[in-house]
């Protein structure tokens, strides 16, 4: 049990100091939607800036997603970078 706790990202979320964009396919197996949702809730409770986007019917590899979801994902990533990456 201790090894799982020591390696769980949930126990390191307090160290996040930048905005986060979590993207998950609802059919993902390696990173289940519930894991993304747990991280999202934990980050919100810690007062962190986080956005969660879930795509119905999609798995882990976004390169295999349907075109509309892939396009939406890329637009959200670009928007996220536009909002959070500042030039000097």
Q: Would you write up a description of this structure?
A:
By secondary structure, the protein is α+β, with helices and mostly antiparallel strands. It has a domain at 1-15 and 30-48. The chain is built from 3 helices and 2 strands; from the N terminus they run αβαβα. The protein has helices at 2-7, 33-45, 67-84, and strands spanning 20-25, 50-55. It has a two-stranded parallel sheet. 8% of the residues are buried.
Compile the SSE list and pairings:
Blueprint: H1 2-7, E1 20-25, H2 33-45, E2 50-55, H3 67-84
Parallel strand pairs: 1-2
Instruction: Assess the beta-strand content as a share of residues.
Output: 5-15%
Number of strands: 2
- SSE ordering: HEHEH
Given the structure, what is the number of helices?
Answer: 3
Q: Low-confidence segments, ≥5 residues, pLDDT <50? A: none
What is the average per-residue confidence, as pLDDT, rounded to a whole number?
92
Strand line-up of the largest beta sheet: 1-2
CA radius of gyration: 14 Å
Structural class: alpha+beta
Largest sheet: 2 strands, parallel
- Helicity, as a percent range: 40-55%
Distance between the termini: 45 Å
Shape: flat
Question: In a nutshell, what does this entry contain?
Answer:
The protein is of the alpha+beta class. The protein is 42% helix and 14% strand.
What distinguishing features does this structure have?
88 residues; alpha+beta; 3 helices
